[in-house]
Specification:
By secondary structure, the protein is α/β, with parallel strands linked by helices. It contains eleven helices and 14 strands.
């Protein structure tokens, strides 16, 4: 594995932004900004000679737009690309398309250039995460539209849509689905939810996502899914048939009040450098957990969600995590697997089927076929991290 600073390159037509990013990256000993470019043609030539590990890419560029260039990169020279661009309403939709086209992650430029300095730590962390994932070989180039069907089972991706689902499922107010994800998560979440039946328990989603972007993501789920989808609002009731996305910049928690789940939003301290954080959502429901709650941890960099999933598992919730071969980055699911949090590692193609089957077992009052004590070497209890884990490096 390579050692030394992460070799990064910036593509942005603003000289002010390029100079500012140079100062930001120069202040971090783990990043080496080896070059910059003002348009994709210059970037193409420099990438050939400089061989960067990570590209920081603006989406609004001269001569060729950033999204088109990203698609060329992913086809001809796949590498982790961090989008750093203004996320207006239109820009957020383009950023979602960038993630679908293979971008590692998206960060929104603040309205004022002066505010970029305040987000320098998060920007450096994202570039380092991209580089670490590449070096540790936990990053996989996955673009849904370019993936080759499974030659051994060409209909595998369509199997979940044929799962029998009762016309009048026995959904109770205490049934709930929790989903946590980070890098690669918007595509994974969409794949899991887009064919869920409209009569389905409430779904709470904690996806590491910037402000303004979460609204566009919720709109996309609304357009793709039979379920309704929206950004979660403080104080509202979680209702069946609806997906609630944690807004960027806010933690989402849920509490059982005896009749339904009440949603709350907070701007408390970041956890694992994230807000929203998956651990915050998962931990908020550990006292209400049981087989009626199903939680799944999908693709992502770092360790967020692992301890929260374990706390739910210890409370007899049904807990699953995405398998390594189907992740964009096998970080968060791996961390969960290491502490025995999931009862099963599930390929993304089969996650919908697994969730639906678990709910049908719950509707019928069936006990899970697997229990935490039946997993070899799974710790029965896991010490929760203290407050210092908030600032730990997400590796």
């Amino acid at each position: 594995m390579d050692s030394g600073p992460i070799r990064a390159m910036v593509l942005d037509d603003s000289v002010t932004i390029r100079k500012l990013l140079q100062k930001i990256f120069d202040s971090d000993e783990e990043i080496d900004l080896i070059g910059s470019a003002i348009d994709p043609y210059e970037a193409r030539d420099k990438m050939k000679s400089l061989q960067p590990e990570v590209l920081v890419l603006d989406l609004e560029l001269p001569k060729m737009d950033g999204l088109t260039f990203l698609k060329i990169i992913m086809k001809q020279r796949p590498m982790p690309v961090v989008i750093f661009s203004s996320l207006s309403t239109r820009g957020s939709a383009i950023a979602l398309e960038a993630l679908r086209s293979g971008a590692f992650d998206v960060l929104g430029k603040p309205e004022s250039i002066k505010d970029i300095k305040h987000m320098s730590e998060g920007l450096c962390m994202k570039v380092k995460e991209a580089g670490w994932a590449l070096r540790q070989k936990t990053w996989q180039h996955r673009v849904e539209s370019n993936q080759t069907p499974n030659p051994f089972n060409p209909n595998r991706q369509n199997q979940s849509s044929r799962i029998p689902w009762p016309k009048k499922p026995n959904i109770r107010s205490h049934h709930l689905l929790l989903i946590g994800a980070s890098t690669g998560g918007t595509e994974a979440i969409s794949k899991v939810l887009k064919k869920m039946p409209p009569q389905f328990p409430p779904v709470l989603v904690a996806q590491h996502i910037p402000k303004k972007f979460s609204h566009s993501f919720a709109q996309r789920l609304e357009a793709e899914c039979a379920l309704s989808a929206k950004e979660a609002e403080d104080g509202e009731e979680a209702k069946a048939g609806c997906i609630y996305v944690a807004p960027g910049g806010k933690h989402l928690i849920a509490k059982w009040n005896g009749t339904h789940y009440q949603l709350h939003l907070t701007e408390d301290e970041r956890v694992w450098h994230q807000r929203p954080a998956v651990d915050v959502l998962f931990h908020s429901l550990k006292d209400a957990a049981g087989p009626h709650i199903i939680a799944t941890l999908l693709t992502g960099m770092g360790r967020d969600g692992a301890y929260g999933l374990k706390s739910l598992r210890d409370s007899n919730a049904r807990c699953f995590a995405q398998s390594e071969e189907s992740c964009v980055v096998f970080g968060m699911p791996r961390a969960a697997e290491e502490i025995g949090a999931p009862e099963k590692m599930v390929h993304l193609d089969n996650m919908r089927e697994t969730i639906m089957t678990a709910f049908q077992d719950s509707f019928k009052g069936k006990k899970p076929t697997m229990h935490k004590d039946n997993i070899p070497n799974a710790p029965k209890t896991v010490a929760q991290p203290d407050a210092s884990f908030i600032s730990q490096r997400s590796t």
